[in-house]
Amino acid sequence: MTRTFATLTAAAALMIAPATFTSMAQAQSPSPETTTPPAASPVMPDAGTPQAPPAEMPNSPSTDTPSAAPVAMPGDTTQASPTVVPATPKFVATQESGQQLGSDLIGADVVTSTDEKLGSIRDVVVERDGRIIAAVIDVGGFLGIGAKPVAVSFDSLAPTTTDSGQKIVVALTKEELNTAPEFKTLEQVRQETSDAGARTN
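Predicted structure:
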């Protein structure tokens, strides 16, 4: 009886196996409904919606591009000031008519139109381009002691050559020169400013 039961069980298993195999095969094979849909097309952005610009990739520095020149900031003392190149030197062979030497001016007497002596030229003030803009006259004093320096525009002076040398004629009186402001050099002005600052501290 046991053999008969085993035989029936085996027969039943053989009958069930094809159906089970068919069900498993159907479960594993993709059905038309479950087929993977095609890739979705990209969604176009709405024209009214602002879009962020695409991120730019950092470019590697190019060796062909020249570096920008340094910009001088206000108060920056690291930048050297450009050097002014002087003009090409020229040689002067002789003194021409109408030209004067500085030695002819320094020490020359300054007189009025009536030949009254007012003083003597101590120095001249020269612009960077070489023009003499003023003559410094020592007015008053005795033998140069106690004299007051007064600067007079050079174009108001008229050099005149005499038998005893050269004198400078100016259309001023002694009183006008005595009351004129005293001439101060740039060094004197700086020294006075420094002394005034020291007194206030």
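Summary: The longest helix spans residues 2-28.
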